[in-house]
Design a protein that fits this description.
- The chain has 98 residues and is mainly alpha-helical.
- Among the domains are: 41 residues; 27 residues, no CATH class.
- It has five helices and no strands.
Length: 98
């Protein structure tokens, strides 16, 4: 494979993270075997990864959310539009929330 082919391969696998090796092979401009594509992907250090799971909310978190909602019962719909709810944000593992 040429340098140009490697750049093309890098573009394809960056844009199409869920593509199989066979699909990537079909998208290449030159006829290349799937085995060579696999080897080149490995050389580019691109490996399949599994997304980390988001942690579940603890009972204390539910209590704080409920207390906040009860304390702000008088708010209008426009006031509530500015609140970020737990189902609208991502949580990361290993980070402490203050």
């Amino acid at each position: 494979m040429t340098k140009r082919d490697r750049r093309k391969l890098s573009q394809i696998i960056t844009r199409g993270r869920r593509l199989t090796v066979a699909q990537v092979t079909d998208l290449m401009t030159h006829m290349v075997s799937t085995q060579i594509i696999q080897q080149e992907i490995h050389k580019l250090e691109e490996h399949s990864r599994i997304a980390p799971r988001r942690p579940y909310l603890r009972p204390q978190d539910f209590q704080r959310c409920l207390a906040f909602a009860q304390a702000h019962r008088h708010w209008t719909i426009n006031d509530w539009a500015w609140v970020i709810w737990t189902d609208e944000t991502a949580f990361e593992l290993g980070k402490k929330v203050d």
